[in-house]
Every structure is written in structure tokens, then in C-alpha cells.
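Problem: given the chain below (414 residues), write out its structure.
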Amino acid sequence: MDWLFPAALALTGTFGVLMGLWGVWYLVSGLACVRKPMDYGFHPAKTKFAVLIAARNEELVIGPLINSLLTQDYPSDLYDVWVLPNNCTDNTALAARNFGAKVLECTVPVKSKGEVLRFAYNRLRGRQYDAWLVFDADNVVDRRFLSEMNNARLAGAQAAQGYRDSKNPYDTAVSSSSSIYYWMMDRFHNGGKAGLGVSAMIGGTGFMVTQQLLDKLGGWRTETISEDLEMTAQAVLAGEKVAYVPKAVTYDEQPLTWEQSIRQRRRWTSGTLQVAQRCLPVLGEAQSDRPRLVLFDLELTLLMPAYQLAALAGLICTVLTSALGGKTLLQSLLLGLAGACGNIAWAAVTATVAAGIVITLEGKWDRRLWKGLASYWLFLLTWLPITAVSFWKKTTVWEEIRHTRAMVPQLPGK
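Solution.
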């Protein structure tokens, strides 16, 4: 059994090196956010938008979203708001009509949001829209969203992701942690990618894709449960980068409980695994034909679940290595526990510092965020077992997360 200690030590070192190499790239790309985002300028309103809202049992929250869309600082004759009720057992369709939206009820069986959007696109593509916008039913949208996306499109963007803010960052520790996570993605992921000159990532809501790009892709043809990441990959493989438009702001309702958050993140992770399985081989072929930084960056994004699994394996190896240093069972248990606590404590400190930095950079400091700041490390730590379970058994159905906050956030001046 003398081989166990050096073997565990070697594994710990290997996982540490692999995670370090992956982390260096994300550090480099994150630091690129110091560059100012591209200025898309001001352009006259010319883009005709189709606004799509997939809605499942959302009658309680859809009103504020529709109101925020119908009162945009954009000509009303240049966009249509389409609510797409699917699998509903409430009065979502009636509520949407009463608030002034057009309603296209999904008449075919659907298991994912992407299938709903594909159904709507196939029914509406003859209406000569220039671009398509997608929102979740629980959102509220800044009044200049359409104007900013029009600016981006007329400046050449074929796909674009706006800034995802939070509707309810102060409700619970979970909603606060989720809000911090989105601010982190806005600043360091999409902001960093924009600064580095690679592709931002479509984030499920508050995004635009042009008809020109959809024609290039052969229509709306996402098939996985992560239609946003899949469309990002399709755009990159088609030679387009997703633009980041931080002035186009969407306010999203965050989960209130750990149960809701875990279910949501398990769906995200399962979807990422589906997209990785489909797209990594194609990305590899494209990279071998003509190496490009944008392809390399997307490949690392799709490897995020593998990184999280490596982090969990590295933690287990650290515990095992520490425990093998004990001469008695009690010493082994204590050393193993000390190794686990030391790693988790270091991760908690770095996660909390990173959360504090992003809250500062985004101008979000508020004493009510203390719960999220204190638990953000746990939010990230719980992602490791979520990923492990998703590797074992993927979620393949878009499960409803009930939204109840029919409120409009205080819109800060951005």
C-alpha cells in the first residue's frame, strides 16, 4: 500500500495543473474587461424586430414585461411583441392579450424553450422581420433596449447579448448569490470576451439574432436544452461573433430557494454537456483547418463542466493525500478533514473577494447584499456535485420554475 500516497499526490498535482492552466485563460480574458466595450454609435431606427417570449404558467409576472416592451423608446410600428404560451395550465395567454401583446399559442408538443422558439420562428418568418429578440416571461426591460440593439445591428452585429441585471437581488441569500453570478458573467465573461475580441455568450434572455444570420444557419435549429449556448456555438462556427451590448439591459428574476437554484443549474450544466457533445468535435475540425482564438475560447467555455468535475476530483484527492499522512485512523480522519477545510476555506475567501470586486465594479454595493456576499462561495461549491450528477444523468426536459414577483425594479442610471 506504499504506492497509495505518491499516487494520490500525483493525482492531486495533475488536477491542480490542469485547473491552473484552464484558470489562467479565464484570468486573462476576464482582465480584458478593462477595455471599454465597443461603441455602436447612434443610428436611426430601421430594424424591424420580432420580440419572442416563451411562457409557461406566467400569468402572474408577464404584465410588467409586456408593459416595459410596449413603452420602449423605439417606434411602435417597427416591432411586434409575441407571447408564446406552451404547456400552460393557467391563463397566461389571456393575461398576455389583456396587456396588449400578440399571442401565438404553441400547438405542438415541446420539451424545451428552444423548441418553442423554433415553432414561433417557423410560423412568423414570412413577416419580414430584420431581427429576433428573446426574453423570459419574468423579465423587465430597460426602455432603450430595442434602440441599443438597433444600434448594434446597424453597426454590423449579427448576434448580440445585452446586460443581464437582477429584479430581486435582496430577497434571499440564493437570489443575491445568483445576482452576483450574473454580474460576474456580465463584467468578466462577456465584458472580458468583448475586450479580448472573441465572442460573448448568448445568455438565454435579452439577446438578438438577425434574420441574416438565421438564413446563414438554415433557420432556427437549436435542439438542446441550452438553446442559448448552442446558438452561440452555431454563430461562431458560421464565422460570426456574439456582440456584447451592455447598454441593452434586462432585469431577470432570480431563484429564491436552493432547490430552485439547484434545479436551474442542473439544467444549465446538462445543456452545456449536450452542446459540448455536439459541437466540440466540429470545433476541433474547424480549429485544425484554421486555428482561431475565438474557437479556442469557445472550446474552453464548453469544457466548464469538465473543469468543475476536475475541481471536485482534486478536492477528493487532496483529502485522500492528507488522510494518508496519518499513522492512526483518528489522525487520518483529522488530517483528511483539515485538508478539505483548508481547500474549501481558500475557495471561500477567493470567491468572496471576487464577489466583492464585481459588486464594486458594477456599482451594486448595498447592505442588503450581505447574505449573497456571505454565501456566494457556497453557491459556487454546490455546483461541483451538481455537475457530477449531471455527468451521470442529464436533465433533458425544460422544467418550469414558477415565478411570482410581478414587480418592477428600481432602474438605476446605467
